[in-house]
User: Fold these one by one.
Assistant:
Number 1:
Amino acid sequence: DLEVHFRAGGLPLPGRPTRLVRAVNGVSFTLAPGEALGLVGESGCGKSTLGRAILRLGDLTGGAIRFGGADVATGGRDGLARLRRETAMIFQDPYGALNPRMTVGEAVAEVLRVHRKVPRDQVPARVAELLTLVGLRPEHATRRPAALSGGQCQRVGIARALAVEPKLIIADECVAALDVSIQAQIINLLIELKARMNLALIFIAHDLAVVRRLCDRVAVMYLGRIVEEGAAETVFAAPKHPYTQALVRAIPEIDPDRRLPAELLGGEPPSPLDLPPGCAFHPRCSFAMPECRAGLPPALRPAEGRFTACHLYPAIPARS
Ligand code: SF4
Ligand code: MG
């Protein structure tokens, strides 16, 4: 039931009404070792805020996070230390995430020394091993980010993430800035590493085609809430929520027989400062009914692992 609310425009002043940004609004999900969850939705729907909140890189205002049994949201220093030891994040901008003055070797070594306390004499061998693991060569260790391509930089970002020996990696739009052919290489690398190391992966992306290739499950976010969740195969083949249906229809389909009529979403999502009442998707939904404005849709879990929050589907009591 994670919640991230913050005040818009800084500290409250006398005479200035505080306005609350409801960026993440009661999100719940579980993730198993070795499983990849795609977190999708248009930009501004809270995906990055949620990802940062899970790793405690951003503040939470409510809810709990259990990581391997430990409460890391409210568990204080121990919980935080555990998160830092066992999780890592991969960012969108492969150049921006690296220090331009450090060589690749130094950037990876830094993580090994700080997070893994690897003895100094063992660092070079471990750096070479990590670079090889992500498809670079040990010789890349002496280069600086400016001498690398975007794809190579992202491999360094992944090597840094793996240096932590994480159980969970959160990747936020980590291929969005790369050319399509390079994207495929990085995705294949993540698929391979996930299987080899039994990594849990939260893959934040607005590109559903990429999520379909990489992820076992998908959670669709709209204005701070998960509106649909399930096995990636099922959600992409038979989306239930009108928002997911629109997103799935917008995926470019190469095979003309499988192409659905494009029904692109009109306009932008409303601001999280002024959430529409009821189902927040109702102003853009072609199925909207009076009850959609009146109240939140029931959170349905008709089957294990499948979830839809929409008034179109009759409430089925949760299984006990
Ligand atoms: Fe559309 Fe109503 Fe379902 Fe929201 S609850 S997605 S407005 S049909
Ligand atoms: Mg984002």
Number 2:
Amino acid sequence: MSKQTLNFQAEVAQLLHLVTHSLYSNKEIFLRELISNASDACDKLRFEALDQASLYEDAPNLEVRVAFDKDARTLTITDNGIGMSQAEAVEHLGTIAKSGTKDFMGRLSGDQKKDAQLIGQFGVGFYSGFIVADRITVESRRAGLPAAEGVRWVSAGTGDFEVETIERAARGTSVILHLREDATEYLSHWKLQQIIGKYSDHISLPILMQKETWDAEKSEYVTQDEWEAVNSASALWTRPKKDISGEQYVEFYKVISYDQEAPLAWSHNRVEGSTEYTQLLYIPAKAPADLWNRDRKAGIKLYVKRVFIMDEADALMPAYLRWVKGVVDSADLPLNVSRELLQESRDVKAIREGNTRRVLAMLEDLARKDKAPETAEGQDGVTDVVSEEDKAEQAQDAGKYTAFYAEFGAALKEGLGEDFANREKLAKLLRFASTQSDAVSVSFADYKARMKDGQKAIYYITADTLAAAKNSPQLELFRKKGIEVLLMTDRVDEWALSFLPEFDGTPLQSVAKGAVDLGELQDEDEKKAAEQAAESFKPVLEKLKASLKDKAKDVRVTTRLVDSPACLVVEDGDYSTQLARLLKSAGQ
Ligand code: ADP
Ligand code: MG
């Protein structure tokens, strides 16, 4: 192929314009992005070589090299991974395929400052290079292709790029950044090593740099021929917990999740037994915009014996925990496992159950520490005896569960219908507003502890909004009697609660369903009055029934109202008005 000039896809041109016309608080993320691509390329080679070992050619040790040339003002990142054919270079570097980048594009506000900040948080993959370079040259050869079929790709990050055929002996890719005037700081061993340590330490390949030694005569550092690894070169989850700092866990989370915020909690374990695997699971702080998309994939990456197999491994997490991010590395699954095979595997089932247990345990822990230590009292009013260390930890985690619940509580409720085995655990994790608390903070256990003598059920009402729930005429009698009622306003509440007939032996009862029998809490006099009223209003009821024939199943005298003249109720076992609306809006 002789030299060809091609245009970028319109979206790329738009993105590049933004990248090159903004100033950044953290330019340095470009290196994270390029090293991550180099590492992905090595993962891809390792994966393809499972079936075709010859792809390794004569270089079986996968690695990334970072080198700079002060005189030429270039910074070069070289990998010996899968490489790109000419067609692949045109396609992969000329269009945007990455969903993370598309997501980023969708969030652009037009405000240059805000958008620039977004780039730093998301990273925009390969194009991040143009933050520091006014020209990028990529030279590559795909593993398995002859040396004569190498490709050179060059662009100044404006509307177009050039491609041509080159001779390239080495398999893999070199990305050569021609640094801008204001990016001279990256022509420094110390600076590069620092950035690699911050963002790329967890990369499982060695990242090599040339050694530098102090030359006293010239009184400057000189570059040696010898290369040395500047990262730990072992995947983060394969290292012992005690060797990993909190900051490293957080950075790793940001890399795998494309989330800029630190996670609320994580759990890292090696599970041994009949199924062996390592799990590193994170609870994000914020729900993604598409949490409610039914097709949203799980956030778990699957590795088998440290070889990357797939992103979004749905089978490893139940759907209601689709927002959990992390990595599972299995010692048992075959390397060529497919999504179909995953669905059927017994090991996968065991891993999914183990993951679920672990996430619920993390949530239980956050829920336990949700209140600040000063106010942490046992239910019997006795303050728990806690060590200073526990107190400190608790203070740190105070409020996290409330924050978690506001983001993911509704998704968690889906579990009641989906995961019968963990229904009780899930029920304990639920929180609601109530007639005694505007904050969504009342657990079923809290409620039970406040039940009136003789109260036989946990009462709740469902409505579209908190205001509607609170003002419902159905609550009048409960208010008068001082009986707490849980106020449920999530769309899934009604459906979810249909799977939870009771909590810890106490039945759940909707105040909007059927006849409310308050049992012993109702005075004998009131009951008698109601019966009398029913008798004397019989003719009126008959008339009402006749005129509402098509609209109401039944009309009856009730004791549930105090001030309002009438209210609508549904039969026990029928869909409530809220659920009926939900089903209607779903087209059923
Ligand atoms: P992402 O890495 O999320 O796919 P990028 O913008 O970082 O998005 O990279 C775009 C694509 O370019 C990659 O998916 C890959 O196909 C190709 N690519 C980039 N760098 C390399 C590399 N070092 N080796 C092989 N392919 C690469
Ligand atoms: Mg990338």
